[in-house]
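quick one, 187 residues, struct below
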Amino acid sequence: MKNILKTTTLAVITILSLSSQNLVFNTPAIAQRKCGNTKPVEANKTTRTIKLKQFGIKVKIPANYRTTVRNDGSIIILDPGSHEAMRCRAPHGIYSFSIKTLPNPQKLSLLELAKISYPNITGETPNITNYSFNNTQALIIDAKGGYSAYGIFNVPSKGVIEMSAGCDCEVDKTSVIEYLQTTELLK
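---
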């Protein structure tokens, strides 16, 4: 009887030891969804309007593009391939368009804010140009590195809104201007 008890105890200890090391009693594997097309997808000619009440604007985007809210409250707009690349954490960069509120606690003018908020990595001042859309004054900031461009403008009761295009590819101010041309302040 003592031998059976010792053998049973040893067997239980061995099983518990192995299970704690995930060698026995593993939880079933959950299959992850495979990645689809992660290459950038061309924008549809048709558009849809998205209202972004938190920024006080509405903007037209290509009908096939997706929007995602980031942890910091900003919105990114992605083509379907870039959205899939981001979801799958693909090992290559993506083109994205982002909209966020830009902090301006000192109530600086747009030009002053642009000069201190957008220094280029090389230490050069980025190209800053005036731009007007739908009776709203904006500034376009074209980084000299070619990987990002920004548009900033004031929205009453919301503050300074930043629209930015970024990529590990060439990006310039035309990416931002295309969105500004289809942006309206909410009434």
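The first strand starts at residue 47 and ends at 52.
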